[in-house]
Amino acid sequence: MTDLEKARQLFRKAGLAFPMIPTQLAVQLKERDQWIFSTREIKISPYILEYYIREVDGTHVEDYVVLAHSGHGVNSYALQYYLVHGSLRMFLHLGWGGVYMDGEAATGQIRECFSLADRIIPAAQSIGRIQAGEYLILVGSNFYGRYWVSPGKNRRENDADRKTPLEVLDEVLRWLESSQ
Description:
The protein is α+β, with helices and mostly antiparallel strands.
């Protein structure tokens, strides 16, 4: 069984949808630790969302995907799906697995977020007006904020912190579809 198949099976057993992983990254996916799958070495816990955002903001980073479940305490647990692919920098850090969380509701929200993310990936790759060195940055977290930055911009497009990760994903998808 490949590590990709292990990850799919783990998500299925947990009742979670499995997000789209571009083919060239899917074949590189490796199990790094319990509930941590990635195409790159993991030096900093995926729970530290800000590290991964700053990393792509300040330096050139090769394409990668991270799928993980991590957290601390009794209620600060999240599922991380980070995808750096072409012009897309997408960081989803979605609450799941805390003692006080409604597991069924959280699983449903993750399923909806992944469904939109699955549509955003090809739309972001086919948009014609993204120039070399420009990126669409999307951050959706239940704990650490939500926002997106369109290509060529250096700041948040909208203050989306009052929105849910699902609403931000939907907003980005609508923007991409209108840009086609």
